[in-house]
Amino acid sequence: MIQFKSLNGLSTLVLASGLIASNFMSLNMLAKKDGGIPDIAKLSSTPYSSIQIRSETGADGGEEWSFASRQHDPKTMLQYETSETPTFNKGVKTKHIHKESVAQFITYPQGSDGKLTAKQIECIEKQAQGRSNGQMIADAGSVQVTPALAGVPIVGPVLAGIFFGQARKQVGNVASDLAGQWNDC
Fold first, then answer.
1. CB atoms < 10 A from the CB of 69, how many?
2. Lowest mean pLDDT: which of 26-30, 61-65, 110-114, 166-170?
3. What contacts 180, CB < 8 A, 6 or more positions away?
4. Are 132 and 172 in contact (CB under 8 A)?
5. Spatial separation of the C-alpha atoms in residues 65 and 30, rounded to whole Å
6. Considering the entire predicted model, what is its pTM?
7. DSSP 8-state assignment for residue 109
8. Closest alpha carbon to 108 in 89, 95, 129, 122
9. Average of pLDDT values for 26-49?
10. Dihedral in degrees, nearest 10, Cα atoms 54, 59, 63, 69
11. What are the tens digits of pLDDT across the range 47-61?
């Protein structure tokens, strides 16, 4: 039998066991196919796709989720928003917002006969080189800062990961733009 010299050791063991059990329970709930929780890992993530998620309370009082996904459809982007606010006469004011806009993504101009010209291909290559070089520069700078952020208690590792990923992404985008401008693209 385990003997504890103080209540502090026992309380630490109980709290740690509870934390571990709650983590396993949440992972188990997310792993179930019919658990009622939307599978966030399977949502579309390309810049040319959109997804609509709607949550409603059903007739039986249960939560009902509906998903509508548009894959590789850059023509329009749709956004629906419904909000309810209370009024002074104890009523509820419902506001529906529907926004439809043309998707704005980077498109490279087409050359003759629907094919890229040699200059356009060179510009795409230079911008890709600039992006990868910028990401390497961000990696070199982030290596110096990340250990300091990781040392922050509790949230440090999360902050370090967010900083590292965002720095890499932003510096890569800036370097790609600079490479395009430098090469007259």
1. 13
2. 110-114
3. 123, 126, 127, 130
4. yes
5. 16
6. 0.40
7. P
8. 122
9. 65
10. -30
11. 666 677 788 888 888
